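Standup notes, structure subgroup. Blocker cleared on the zinc ion input:
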Amino acid sequence: MSDLTDVVAAYATDLIDLLPVVTLKDFLHWYQLQVDPEFQPPPTKAKRALFAEVALSLVQAKPAHLLAFFDAEPETIPELEANRWPFSMSYDQRHLLTATDHLPVASTRKAHLYGNDVLVPAYSVLEVLRLQLLGTDGRKALLAKARQEAKLLPAYQEAQAQRKQQQLLHRKQRENLRSAFWQSVEALRQKLPPAEQPLFALAFWTQQINQVQKYWQLHTTDKSHGLADYYHLKGLAIAEFLESDDAHIKHGFYRPKQADRYYVSLCAEHFSDYQLETDYGIPVYWYYQEHRAAIDACPMCQVTVTQDYYALYFTQVKNADFSFSFHTPYPLGHQLYGAVDQYPRVHHQPNVDGDFTFGHAMDRELLQAVGEKNILDEFQQARFAFGAL
Ligand SMILES: [Zn+2]
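Run returned:
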């Protein structure tokens, strides 16, 4: 590793920039007392730039002066948290260097991160610059050396082994999940008479993509999203079910208690009445319910009713052993299904506390274990196989 004097020589300007004016004054005062009693520091009232300029010329002339000052006044050494370093180094790498005495932690600060209290370490700027001076290759070599040294540290090895153990366990769990899933696919296939296999395979994989769609409905972000338009794909499967005359397929519709959507646009007069009476405390729709006769009679108020907006179409694929159900909201389904009343009405218990009225999202672990691409491919194969009949 490079000597600290080299570090100060190489980064004198950066170091001086990091020092607050009071430290610069202390340094110059210290210099005067220790090294050169004849030295004239700038007047106390001078600007920071002047202190910095004088300090920099002293450090450039003899870098060891600043180190000697830091030795005498260690609390004046600036500290840098890892997110302000001039190069990047992972948490694991910093931890390795600290464990092997190549990177002392200068201080720790309590911080609140992702809902947890964590200790954030800060490092002496001299140590950080020392690592910077090594360059990329030098840091790589130092990390390799530290990894060798860490093999001799029982505590570090134990922590690493524990981490590896956890990773292995997680991989094993994922493997179990994956094989259990494919076993259930195989069990389904074996239990079905060959003539029913194409239909029930499509029903099964439609249920899977439906759950994947719900997963992404909950988890889509700027950086991650589903591989396909699953609403569209589910619609293609539903279209197959609607076209088929297979006796295992039944359709219906579910109409909740309040199935119609009301869009209420109040006139200026009724709106100011709504405002006065409720102070915006209730939705306009509730106000409409209470003053229905008057608003319906008012020529200036507008009420648009979309009938069965909250109704759901229902398709079921069922035999003695298996049953798959699909609910499609009216606005998405009415192109495919057509008028609601041509289907028998079904009564279902909606989910009370789930994320969705019917069905549920696929579990993240299961999705990762099985693989979204595999589910998509299996669905497409099942759809073509059924459609070819
Ligand atoms: Zn009105």
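Discussed briefly. The longest helix spans residues 154-191.
Next: hand off to the docking folks.
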